[in-house]
C-alpha cells in the first residue's frame, strides 16, 4: 500500500534522451544560419546598378574640331548639375564618366565640381562592339553604384541597348540635347529603362 500510494502521488517520469537539448539547439542554430545566409544572398543580389546617360550639351557649330559649348550649352550643363548634384545619399552619384571630346568634358564640369568628383574619361564607343564593351565595363566597375555618362548622339542609343537589352532604342535627333536615359540593372532579373527630357 505504501508503494501504491507513492505511485499515485508521484507519477512515473518519462525518460528523456540525453542529447535532446543538444539536437534542438543545433537544429535551431542551423535554421537561423540558413535564414541569415539566404537574407545575405538576397540582399547582395537585389542591389542594382543605375547608369544615367546624357548627350553633351549644345556645341558651337562654328568650330569644326573639338567644339566647345555655346552659352545655351553652358546653361544646360549647369542645369544638369542641379538635377544630379545631390551631395548626400540617397541619390548621390558614385562616379561621372565622359567621352574625351571637349563638349562632353565641359558638360560634366559643373556637376563634377559640385560633387568633388574627377570625371573618368572613357572611349567614345563609336561602333556596336565598343558600346557593348563599355556597357560591360560600366556594370563591372560600378557594380551597385550610380553613375552618369555623357557621350554623343550616335553612341548613346547603342550603349543604352547594350545595358538594357532593349532593341528599339530610337536614335537621338541632331537637335535633341535634353534626353536622359536612366538604365537600372539589377544583379538578378531584367534591366529597367526610363527616358526623360530636361
Tally of structural domains: 1
Radius of gyration: 30 Å
Name of the level-1 CATH class? Alpha Beta
Give the H and E element order: HHEHEHEHEHEE
- Major sheet, described briefly? 6 strands, mixed
Characterize the quaternary organization of these chains.
Answer: single chain
Strand order of the largest sheet: 3-2-4-1-5-6
Mean pLDDT: 86
Which keywords apply here?
198 residues, single chain, six-stranded mixed β-sheet, alpha/beta, Rossmann fold
Topology (SSEs and partners):
Elements: H1 2-9, H2 20-46, E1 48-55, H3 71-84, E2 95-98, H4 102-115, E3 120-121, H5 128-141, E4 146-151, H6 156-164, E5 179-186, E6 192-197
Parallel strand pairs: 1-4, 2-3, 2-4
Antiparallel strand pairs: 1-5, 5-6
Helix pairs in contact: 3-4, 5-6
Amino acid at each position: 500500500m505504501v508503494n501504491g500510494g507513492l505511485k499515485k502521488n508521484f507519477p512515473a517520469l518519462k525518460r528523456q534522451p540525453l542529447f535532446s537539448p543538444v539536437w534542438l539547439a543545433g537544429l535551431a542554430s542551423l535554421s537561423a544560419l540558413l535564414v541569415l545566409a539566404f537574407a545575405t544572398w538576397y540582399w547582395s543580389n537585389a542591389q542594382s546598378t543605375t547608369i544615367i546617360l546624357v548627350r553633351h550639351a549644345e556645341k558651337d557649330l562654328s568650330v569644326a574640331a573639338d567644339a566647345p559649348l555655346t552659352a545655351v550649352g553652358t546653361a544646360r550643363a549647369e542645369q544638369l548639375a542641379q538635377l544630379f548634384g545631390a551631395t548626400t545619399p540617397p541619390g548621390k552619384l558614385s562616379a561621372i564618366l565622359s567621352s574625351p571630346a571637349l563638349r562632353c568634358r565641359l558638360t560634366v564640369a559643373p556637376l563634377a565640381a559640385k560633387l568633388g568628383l574627377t570625371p573618368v574619361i572613357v572611349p567614345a564607343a563609336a561602333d556596336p562592339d565598343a558600346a557593348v564593351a563599355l556597357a560591360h565595363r560600366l556594370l563591372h566597375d560600378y557594380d551597385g553604384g550610380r553613375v552618369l555618362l555623357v557621350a554623343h548622339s550616335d553612341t548613346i542609343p547603342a550603349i543604352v541597348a547594350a545595358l538594357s537589352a532593349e532593341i528599339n532604342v530610337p536614335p537621338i535627333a541632331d537637335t535633341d540635347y535634353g534626353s536622359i536615359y536612366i538604365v537600372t540593372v539589377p544583379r538578378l532579373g531584367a534591366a529597367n529603362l526610363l527616358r526623360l527630357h530636361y
